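Support case: user asked for a sample of complex input and structure output to validate their parser. Sending the pair below.
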Amino acid sequence: MKRALFILLRNPLSVLGLTLVGLVVLAAVFADYVAPFPDHKGAVVDFLNFNKAPEWPYLFGTDLVGRDILSRILFAYRISLTLGVVVLALAVPVGVTVGLIAGYIGGRTEFVLMRLTDVFLSIPPLVLAMSMMGLLEPSLTNGMMAVTVMWWPWYARLVYNLTRSEREEGYVLAAEVIGASRLHVMFREILPNCVPSILTKMTIDFGFVILIASSLSFLGLGVQPPTPDLGSMVAEGAKYLPDSWWLTVFPGLAILVVVFGFNLIGDALREILGVEQ
Amino acid sequence: MTAPTLAIDDLRLGFRGWAGTVEVLHGISLHIAKGERVALVGESGSGKSVTARLVLGLVQELRGARFSGRMAFEGRDLGALSRREREALRGDRISMIFQDPTSSLNPVYTIDTLFHEVLRRGAPGIGAAEAREKAIAALADVAITDPERVLRSYAFQLSGGMNQRVLIAMALANNPALLLADEPGTALDVTVQAQTLALMQSLVARHGTSMLFISHNLGVVREFADRVYVIYKGRIVEQGPTEGLFEAPLHPYTRALMAAVPRITGEGIPEIDEEQTGFYDPLVAHPGYSEAELRP
Amino acid sequence: MSPVVRLLIKRIATSFIVLVGVSLLIFTIARVIPGDPARIALGPNASAEAVEALRDKLHLNDAFVVQYGYFIADLARGDLGQSLYSNRPVTQDIAAYLPATLELVFFAGATMILIGVPLGMLAARYRDRPLDHGIRLFTMLGVSAPDFVWAVILMLIFAYFLPIFPIAGRISDSFAVPPVTGFLTIDSLIAGDFAAFGNVLWHLALPAFALSFAGIGQSARLTRANMVETYRKPFIEMALAFGFPQGRIARRFAFKPSMIPSLTVIGLDLASMLGNAFLVEQIFAWPGLSRYGVAVILRKDLNAIVGTVLIISAMFLIVNIVVDLLVALINPRIRLSQRSS
């Protein structure tokens, strides 16, 4: 633990990552208090101050109906982070279970489960989520579902590969010899040894879930207005390039900052936990 | 008297890590005369392998490595050579054989390609056809009966013993003055290992190559070396002629080593209890075999 | 039969199974969702009889398995049905839009490999030195923003503030290239119109680079990781001990073995560009499959959605098969034995 902290704090990049993610989380949680214009998260109109370039008190400028971009970014972070948590909370257990079962039981079960995983992995990620969103109604909940559906196979793949190599290890054989149940071997013996890899992947994926979700709403297939969302803010602003550049550039950079932060932490975790890419 | 093929004086090496500097070698001195076969014996972690890599200049490039001392090859101070000059010695004048032959051969190139690359060290402009001819001769020298097939193959298609022979042939292909053998064939089974070592012995004798033989296998060392240095935790503790040293070990560590090894099978060194009395005693040289007496 | 041919046949067979799975999956999603496609197609003012007639015509009143059977039978004849959005056969629509997307993806993929892989090699060779840290930072930035953000930033910088590149489109209006393949690079060469060819490349530059940015990061990081791993192998130490020149070791002896694990993942990156192209096409008004895809999704045009997803998945699988073949060709272990992986 001490060593972990040492490595984490020694590397200026991981400190930067922790700082970025920490600031974003704090800002999102306390958006109501931090945001300069808390009521701009909704359908507010202020035609006196519309489409303003960055200037005090609108640090990042205002949008076409006069809402403060910075405030909307902070509230959009709320949505993004919630989405990340929910998607991973749903996708990881499903993927891990499928991977464990396929890798440990083997045989026909393995064939069916892994081919199923292949099917999901054979549709380009964004296209799968897009078509799901199109067939359902674009909304936050459906967006989460769509991203979850495209995400679990990656964990199935990861855990499947890990399980296949762990299956031959001495401790697994030992547990089997003394008559431990399959369930016990899978979840109490093998799973704990996969945790470092899963944890590292989750950290990095948290950023990528946010990224994909923003791509969906960029295409108009995610969170619907007036709820603030980074992807749809970029899409909306892109129509007014280059003159109203602040409409797109700041929400775009906001995505970059949070995903970059998670990537930096994930990189450090990888080193600490000794996980290979 | 001409300069020894290799002379090492007071060689020290440490690695700086996040827990401070770890000393690996505490000032060792040894030499190899022309045509002599010298064994460096010790447990794993004693610093014997790193010594060979220092001679080749492989360790110096690692980050955090700090070393001092003098190494001379045929009278030339290796420390005074430029990086380029030092690299020019490798594979041409000095070459090396490794522990696991199969993983030492690049898996995505045929033996033919690798051999061409090796021969290019001795003769930079050598063409494919000429290299092939030379390689076939070199492989025939290590008692490979179908060199053509071997050349066409990848390492993973050949047996470990075969790969060991290929590696020996490569190491001797450019007629080096010094061959460093780092636990050759330890990864192979005992009979194959014995065969290839016997082969290596006769080739080295024929070419007049000097040799540093690094091993933890006392049985092999006894058969193979003219002289022996025993190394313990980065210090040479005993040196002498092979027979004399095996008949009458003088240093407490060497004695413990001999006592622990099953004589007949000549297996590797088993675990020896940590730090019995006298293991850190100063270097003992057999009469007439100290560095001062042997070197002009 | 050579192992590579055997591998090819095996991969095509499994890909076919996967494709059937994909069609089932997307078909299921398309049928279980709420909303009546016939009603959506005809609009709220159509009569109940008209809707019912269309439902019959589209087999919507049959059991699910029967519907799927009709679908597969049509598919076998190369018929993906009629698009309710464009009133044209879906295959015709896709044939019209796909080349632009493929052309973009091809150039983005080439950019990714030509920049990403050498960057990774450099980082591995100078690992833990400043250059390595610099490359790591750069590549991490690359993967940390969606392609549309890079598209916006590149466009602002290189098309507006420094007007070096065009803002949108595939080719300037002043050029007329007779359509043959739909790939403007190829068509302009067929026509022998090199000015047009240059103009097409000029239009491709920014979108292709924006699309490749994340892939550059991915492939550079992957190449670095695998190269570093390879540098620890005994055969590299052997090469060093035998004095093979450092540059040669990096370019030949370490590179080729490292590419074997890298290639598979780089192939996946390349294939995922087929999806990400949608994002870049939106920003640069690229007349590819994206606008069609988004439009039919928003209109719940079932045939068109199923067709688009199927085609993209098929492309995705083809890319992966090609990559597997490449891996087999550079890995003698696969080339010479039947074992895959």
